[in-house]
Amino acid sequence: MSLASTSRRLGRAAAAIVFIGLASCRPGGTKACTEAACGDEVEIKFEPELVAPGRYHFIVDLDGVTRRCSASLPNPSQQEIMPECMIRQGDGSLAAITIPRMQPKVVALRVVRDQAVLTDTRAAPIYAVERPNGPDCPPECSVGRVTVEIKEPTTEVHR
Fold this sequence. Notes:
Layout: H1 3-25, E1 41-50, E2 54-62, E3 65-73, E4 86-89, E5 94-100, E6 107-113, E7 116-123, E8 126-130, E9 141-149
Parallel strand pairs: 1-9
Antiparallel strand pairs: 1-5, 2-3, 2-6, 4-5, 6-7, 8-9
């Protein structure tokens, strides 16, 4: 076999591989999926993020199932390890709580900092379907999101 014929065969093989790769990207073609995982969850975002120093306690009722978690500022990295809720940190703040494996219709949240109640509210999450590996690939997860307004307690001034 000559060098020229080997070169032509390799060129044809490379063209075939490119064609197959392009065909798999077309609608109806085969598609390779990544293997990213996801899980059903609900995220409770704080507006504004919690920034005042102190010990925070979060009591979350999800259609009758209660989850409790806590964290401290200014050192949010020293939070307790609690698999039933994950506290998302901002830049020196507490930004949100995520509760895994839950899809409640209603979320009731009580936030307490150093015995002061910052909020005691109920809200219905808005759910979206997420597919981390693409629209035609499993898994499919339901992620609920709700934003909760946080107000600092006011100190009344008596005259």
